[in-house]
Amino acid sequence: MKFQELKKSLLNGAMPIYLIEGEDAFLRNKAVELIKNAFLTFPEFNFDAFDADAVSNEPDAFFATISAYPFMADKRIVVLNGFYPTANELKGKMFKRVFTEDFETTILIIVNEKPSVNLKKLERVTLVDCGKLDEVTATKWVKQECLNAGVVIGNEACSLVLEFCRLDMTKISTEVKKLIAFAGKGAEITKESVEALTHKDTDYQIYELTEKIARSKNNEAMAIFTDMLNKNADKQRIFSAIFYHFRRLFYSAISACDSKELALSLGTEEWQIKKAKEQAKNFSPKRLKQINDKLCALDGDFKSGEIMLDDALFNSIFNVMIEGE
């Protein structure tokens, strides 16, 4: 099920094992919170959390915990973080019991950022997909948070928040709290306040940067690049984001696949491909090919130690983007 379906499903009772899986940390934490709020009482006695290494080192302690009875309650909850078992591990004596026996009074919640094919195959495991929310659902969340705080936010301002944060709910929740506090109860969050106060995600700034380059607005492009360096000391993250952004643009320009197929093949999100297809129209396929060839060369030179990271990053801007064809 999708994250947004979880709350309703909990009204029908608990499933024995939940696999909370997806890239959005805010949604993963929220999913665990929803399950705990629905079924957990006396958490000091009936809640335990393990990580995968602890389970590997002390499997007996983990098994004893999930097989124990709750204290003065119907359920106990056990969270297992970062668990990516192999098929052989699941066939082992302990895990075979964990995933086949019915521990009626225990809810096991496995929380993973990345997919686990082996866990998804198990009959008693219920998947909760915590990938990025779609724009409609994220908009509803933002507007409800503002309504709860007695603050108004219009469609344009709300869309800007989502775009600046690239639909990352962890970032959205942080920025919305800041905007609510700035506006104050009874006031409105305006487009201007969003533009002035919201921290723009690196990927969004690269999208902006690319727009300026496509329109030969090099001074504005350099201003964005300088701002990125001032706000984000992780230069390798910036270089990688530039590299993969232009890779998406190139394949979006030349591929006959639809957005969903292309997103799957590139290991990215469908909404990112849709944005890339729009932006790729500002460049000729030839120019995108030239840019990608240069970025690949810079990446190879950096990884082989022929150039320093600073050289790779600045060359990607000066020699690749601004010079153009």
What labels describe this entry?
single chain, 325 residues, alpha/beta, Rossmann fold, Helicase, Ruva Protein, domain 3, 3 domains, five-stranded parallel beta sheet, two-stranded parallel ribbon, globular
Topology:
Layout (H helix, E strand, L loop, with lengths): L2 H8 L6 E5 L3 H15 L3 H4 E5 H6 L1 H8 L9 E6 L5 H4 L2 H8 L5 E7 L4 H4 L4 E5 L5 H14 L3 E2 L1 H11 L3 H15 L4 E2 L1 H7 L4 H13 L3 H14 L3 H20 L4 H8 L3 H11 L4 H19 L5 H14 L3
Parallel strand pairs: 1-4, 1-5, 2-3, 3-4, 6-7
Helix pairs in contact: 1-2, 9-10, 9-11, 10-12, 13-14, 13-15, 15-17, 15-18, 15-19, 16-17, 18-19
Give a short account of the largest sheet: 5 strands, parallel
Helix content: 55-70%
Helix count, DSSP H or I runs of 4 or more residues: 19
> Structural class of the secondary structure composition?
alpha/beta
Q: Measured on Cα atoms, how large is the radius of gyration?
A: 24 Å
Q: What's the architecture of the largest domain, going by CATH?
A: 3-Layer(aba) Sandwich
CA(first)-CA(last) distance: 47 Å
Q: Strand-and-helix sequence, N→C?
A: HEHHEHHEHHEHEHEHHEHHHHHHHH
